[in-house]
Design a protein that fits this description.
Layout (H helix, E strand, L loop, with lengths): L4 H14 L2 H15 L10 H19 L10 H12 L4 H26 L3 H7 L1 H42 L6 H11 L4 E10 L11 H7 L3 E7 L2 E7 L6 H11 L3 E4 L3 E3 L3 H13 L7 E4 L4 H8 L1 H16 L3 H16 L4 H8 L3 H14 L7 H16 L14
Length: 408
């Protein structure tokens, strides 16, 4: 503003209202409580709200009362924006209060101009763009401060939750007492229904599971994540009524790389064990393509996880000759063997499952028998075959036959 006669009149009007700042701030607070439902929750107390109104009103009037000032002091709306973000006040409601009270302020300013009379009303109307420009400037400053504070809080929260997830997955160092405290800070129950998800980063700059958080929230699934070079690991807290398959579908929908999922477990102090399942599940997937795999919690799975090298050697001893065949031939024999075992040795039942004649099943099983360590009428040989097939079914990486020099 410049020192024109109109601006001097507006400055004089602002000076009059300056003498009523405390009363006006109280009236604005009352108006806010009456018109904006959120404030009636008393998250923002009367003293806080009145103080905020007083500061913002004082800075506004000081700017209008000093025509030589080229720009308003935005420290008051900036402070309000930060404080409301820390109080978790909804930004639309805060801005609604701002607009409501600026309208009230304008009405008071206009009423004073009319009482003054003369050229004062016209001077105020001429200053309308400048006055309402203040409203825009204040709202923008408040919004920027609110969003910046919210972003800082989100980063801080993510870091804190990442540390808490690290506590859960660090294993033996996480005592039951520690896990109880971690559960409380994460907002998780100590006992419930949990999954561990570990996902490889397709690229260093992108999330391996973009948009998953919103999908999980829609399913009422809580989550906490830890980002590490090359991967992200999350602990999911699942509603017991929610089918696990729905959660897996949500993960599949956004996966950009290999993703391993643990079996469902019921105590947070089992998280480090569940993570091992999730990692092995991810590592058992072929590299280079998005895929999600969940391992079952079976004795064989745990045995293989704890002794992968030993299991590899055992599979090679049992199925080594079959694994050396061409892929199509190998796949056919292994699929036939699985169907035969599931049919309890019935060629007819296996044939129906495979859509082939039972004599075809018998022929294939005789071929398979040539590669085994004994005849299939020997329960020990059948048990070995069943174990090997279960192992390679759970861990396809075991199908990669090792060089003979590494076998024992």
């Amino acid at each position: 503003m410049h020192g024109t006669e109109s601006e001097k009149l507006v400055a004089a009007l602002a000076g009059i209202l300056m003498g009523r700042v405390d009363r006006l701030a109280e009236e604005m607070a009352e108006l806010t409580y009456e018109k904006v439902e959120f404030y009636r929750s008393m998250v923002v107390g009367p003293e806080d709200l009145i103080a905020s109104m007083r500061d913002n009103l004082r800075y506004t009037l000081e700017f209008l009362a000093a025509p030589a000032l080229s720009s308003p002091d935005l420290s008051a709306p900036t402070a309000t924006g930060r404080r409301r973000a820390l109080q978790n006040a909804p930004l639309p409601e805060v801005l609604r209060s701002y607009r409501l009270n600026f309208c009230y302020f304008w009405e008071q300013l206009l009423a004073e101009a009319r009482r003054w009379g003369g050229d004062a009303p016209d001077a105020l109307l001429n200053a309308t763009p400048q006055v309402w420009g203040l409203a825009d400037a204040y709202s923008s400053a408040l919004t920027d401060a609110y969003r910046e504070t919210l972003s800082e809080r989100m980063v801080e929260t993510d870091r804190r939750r990442s540390v808490l997830v690290a506590e859960l997955i660090d294993g033996p160092s996480a005592t039951s007492d520690t896990v109880w405290e971690v559960a409380k800070m994460l907002g998780f129950p100590f006992q419930g229904a949990f999954l561990v998800v570990t996902a490889e980063n397709a690229t260093a700059s992108e999330s391996p599971l973009p948009g998953l958080d919103s999908r999980l929230r829609a399913l009422d699934v809580g989550s906490a994540w830890r980002a590490q070079p090359g991967s992200e690991t999350g602990v999911l807290c699942c509603p017991r009524r929610r089918p696990v398959e729905q959660i897996l579908d949500a993960v599949r929908a956004v996966a950009t790389g290999r993703v391993g999922v643990s079996p469902l477990y019921d105590r947070l102090d089992q998280t480090s064990r569940a993570l091992r399942y999730a990692r092995v599940a991810a590592e058992s997937l072929p590299p280079g393509a998005p895929a999600v795999r969940q391992l079952d919690d079976t004795p064989l799975t745990e045995l293989v996880m704890n002794n992968l090298d030993t299991t590899q050697r055992a599979v090679n001893r049992i199925l080594g000759g079959v694994l050396a065949l061409a892929e199509d031939d190998r796949t056919t024999l292994l699929a036939t063997a699985r169907a035969w075992l599931e049919a309890h040795g019935s060629a007819a039942e296996a044939g129906r499952a495979l859509y082939c004649h039972e004599n075809t099943v018998r022929y294939r099983m005789r071929r398979l028998e040539e590669f085994l360590r004994g005849p299939l009428d020997n329960p020990k040989i059948v048990a070995e075959l069943s174990m090997a097939l279960d192992a390679v079914g759970t861990f396809p990486v075991l199908l990669e036959r090792r060089p003979a020099a590494q076998q024992t």
